[in-house]
Amino acid sequence: MQLKILANDGxxxxxxxxxxxxGHSVDTNHYDGETLVEKMRASNVIVIRxxxxxxxxxxxxxxxxELKLMIRAGVGxxxxxxxxxxxxxxxxxxxxxxxxxxxxxxxxxxxFSVARFIHIxxxxxxxxxxxxxxxxxxxxxxxxxxxxGMGRISYxxxxxxxxxxxxxxxxxxxxxxxxxxxxxYMAMDDLLKNADFISLHIPFDKNLGPTIKKEQFDxxxxxxxxxxTARGGVVSEADLLEALDSGKxxxxxxxxxxxxxxxxxxxxxxxxxxxxxxIGASTGEAQERIxxxxxxxxxxxxxx
Length: 304
Prior knowledge:
By secondary structure, the protein is of the alpha/beta class. The protein has twelve helices and twelve strands. The protein has helices spanning 13-21, 33-41, 56-61, 82-87, 100-115, 118-126, 152-163, 188-194, 214-219, 237-246, 265-268, 284-301; strands spanning 4-7, 25-27, 45-48, 69-72, 91-94, 144-148, 167-171, 184-185, 197-200, 224-228, 249-254, 273-275. The chain has a seven-stranded parallel sheet, with helices on both faces. Helix 4 (82-87) links the parallel strand 4 and strand 5 (91-94).
């Protein structure tokens, strides 16, 4: 069986070569609008990353076509209306095992960046400033890291944080998880009150809105550090800015934004913010693993 695969947000070259060697065709161009609809209808599989959104209106336009399988090449599937897609006969899959280490390392990197002023001193030194006395930071060792959401990525963060001498606590909507007994479970409010660093690892629910907003910031320690490599929208950017300005939040590492590309210049230019453009899974190793897992998903689904 020869498949037509549309990788609308690109795909690692090794994965493309492997799929072509198996006799499939792979289109790695990016399409929007009516052209995207046409390409999806003519394909058996669509593979997307973060850029492409598959919402109800798009799903309605590709019903009764050649398309059978939608793959989110990454952990989350919130940019696909997956329940609606499955109700209308499409299979939806992701690649949950591939990018955990990459995202975890970025989260740890942001912790170092804001704790030791790496982000802002890099900028000021390029401007000819030597602000040695301004940049007295804090050490990660001995601090409490609170993880909101406990899964593959947050586990990888926890392992690395433990190696750095941090105490790791977590909260999770499913409650205490036996497989993570080495870490302490806390209710959400208790975690917010006790953590020195907070890292988010949860999906965004547009019906619920931000998980972290003014009410949650008010519960946190003064001088807390906040890291978000999960999804834009889980933190209210307006309330985060207020917390940064007031000193409630000493620093924030942000990889994901309410709107992407972000137009929130006040946030990304804030001197207490270490900002990256949604690059959590952007390592060569992670992209190779994502490609390999994508191939596995395709071959298993079509029994190839």
